[in-house]
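hey team, just a heads up i'm posting the complex here instead of the shared drive bc the drive is being weird again. everything in one block, sequence lines first with there labels, then the predicted structure for the whole assembly after. its three chains so it's a bit long, scroll down
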Amino acid sequence: MSDRAIPVLTVVAGIVALWYAASVWMNATWVFDQAERAGTVVTWAEVVPQTMAQDRPLLPPPHQVAAQLWQGITGQAVTSKRSLVYHGFVTFRGTMLGFGLGIVLGVSLAMAIVRFRVMELSVMPWAIISQTIPIVALAPMILTLSNQLGIDSREVPKAIISAYLSFFPVLVSMVTGLRSPDRIQIDLLATYGASPGQVFWKLRLPASMPYFFASLKVAVAAALIGTIVGELPTGAIEGLGARMLIGSQFGEPLIMWAALFAAAILAGLLILAVGLVERMARARMGVAP
Amino acid sequence: MIWLVGAVVFWGLAWALNVWLAGSRMGQRRAGRIAVATLFGVTILVLWEGLVRGFAVPPVILPGPSVIGPTIATSLPVLWADFVQTVVKGALTGFAIGTAAAFVTAIAIDRSPFLQRGLLPIGNFVSALPIVGLAPILVMWFGFDWQSKAAVVVVMVFFPLLVNMVAGLQATDRLSRDLMATWSASYWQGLFKLRLPAAMPFIFNGLKIAATLALIGAIVAEFFGSPIVGMGFRISTEVGRLGLDMVWATIAVAALSGSAFYGLIAWIESRVTFWHPSQRG
Amino acid sequence: MKKFLSAAVLATLATGAQAQDVTLQLKWVTQAQFAGYYVAEAKGFYDEEGLNVTIKPGGPDIAPTQVIAGGGADVIVEWMPAALAAREKGLPLVNIAQPFKSSGMMLTCLKESGITSPADFADKTLGVWFFGNEYPFLSWMSQLGLATDGSPGGVTVLKQGFNVDPLLQKQAACISTMTYNEYWQVIDAGISPDDLVTFKYQDQGVATMEDGLYVLEENLKDPAFEEKMVKFVRASMKGWKYAEENPDEAAMIVLENDETGAQTESHQKRMMSEVAKLTAGSNGALDPADYERTVASLLSPGSDPVISKAPEGAWTHQISDKALQ
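-- predicted structure starts here --
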């Protein structure tokens, strides 16, 4: 463990040091500008402390972000609207909804594609093209259309956007996975007189599981990106994406940075959780970890 | 009503034709595959048109393809200017800088296993982050024009490519590397003759991910301020003006450029990595 | 008096046993700009009328005109130019009430850019909001004879995001601000008012009507809908007048309704006191003179008029007359 921890910590320390240097450099312009407007002259020794504690820094130093993040997480009850935990949960809920939808869509499409050649020929190219369409271009349209269909919930358009991004990795891996059994294994089942259904349940599906779990890590990250994109310009009501928007609008960079880091923490937790599920599943299926 | 029925009938017929095509010998050939996919795409457009007309959806909610098509034809100069601003200046510049930076970084840390062990987990983590959230901050730093869009793209494509590249450079087996050593190949010879070519499938995998991210980044960044040209600008402005035909025309251009970009990379990949099992199949 | 009141409440409860639902789509995120509606809700003015009002906040990708066209709202808060432009696109919106008497829009410039009058705009970079909010700016520029397409001698327009950074970072000489919001963010950022030059649309004679209530024309023919709107306008105006008189309380009500939890008390209190100056002088009925000025400004003889011909039936006193008796 420590042979990885030390290099990682070194790199992190390097990033933090660079970050401090950059924030002094970037925030200094403002201090000099202010001094010029006030008609005074400041030296670098006076400037540096001032760059560390601005209300609207161009680049807040790490400790300012950390303080804001800590305040957002522990400063109030987790059910309060001011709590980052609450907004993180809203984003988490949207992500899970989109992730679930994406899995269902990805797996069922993959099953149809493996079963019917016509599905593969007609749907697969369009599934690839769908991922090259920038989702943000479609986001406002998804919002309007779901509104038009009488879906009033804010969750649904968000979940659609998030599912749109997360279904694809699942689809691709599942198609590969369902096709991974060798000819010889399929022939063996045929000699046992297995029906196509039995071949599917007893051979193809179990064989595809490692591929499935491998795709989940990618899919959950994509689902989170989709949810944030859905919250950023379309809903702007709750969630981490909405807080980034409000932070931007009211010129409160600290709110933006705190939301950004909260999203990063959420991403980390999600990937950790998916990894855990994967390991448990592998253990149960008897695959060496 | 007639539109609805017509569209559904067309769907049924096209699907039947596709099933037949896919089953026939045509379906094994390239032309047949393209025909099936095209027919499926056309079916979606016909269904769309039929639904819009059948349910009399107002054009300020969802215009049909028959409205969007002429809009594309008549606003080509505007669409072209948007394309140049967002795709060429924003996305492609950012993509070029980001991939070049990732390339150089990967080679720079190649000799230091210590840095690799440190950077790889962080790179993996960062490439899973919702980097799009940085867009408002980068627009604040780099101003309104395409530079800030390119900056968002650089950050978005850098990490996925770096991670793939580092993994790719480690993909050769001991045996091949030892062989290079017995030929007393220098570090650079080993890199260019053995390890870089072997890393190509990984690199192209990263490039393909980066290609789709690049357009998303460039368009999102335009929401937070832009000159009065660009695809993100066009979409958000025209939604406000109820010019939905123009919105969909821009989406069509975005889809087309995204697919073309992806297709180009896939094509180069098939040329460069012709030796790899996935390309021979 | 007390007896009478409770009888009145009982009567409304009896007649409107099932409350009438009204959905209101706001133009932007929850903030004191919309205080009147939140106050009417919180203070029970809507309940007294037997209305069950849902207030939907807006956002950067939410066009109220589109929401109402899709049936997502009964009534929307919108600016007159965007409503008239939508009308020309075939979406017949009608103004039923105008709680904002004056325009709060202005261009705020850094003094160091050398701009002292609108004549100095030429060859400068100006920040503008889009998404339907660009019309007042475009018609002003076209009256000044300044091209906005980037040709020499005109102005360079940039789409500003949702904040005042372009001015602070000196990426633009002037940016669009509202008297009740962005202007104060510039001040908060540490720039003194002496370093700024502002041009209010109101003072330049190019003010267009902001924040009116709009409904679809065909709905107005339905007596039940009309009755609902009369109640809605009456209660909303009561909310606005209450907010004007009690700005701090109104700001706190807005804050409670902000679901992002990112808004601050000081911003909202100040916004409310500035908004109160704009709503003062309106009893809710649209002033035809203001309307004529708006239309004239939008039709202005420049190169790129926002609307091509004077609209008909874009406003009515049908609701406000009954509501304000």
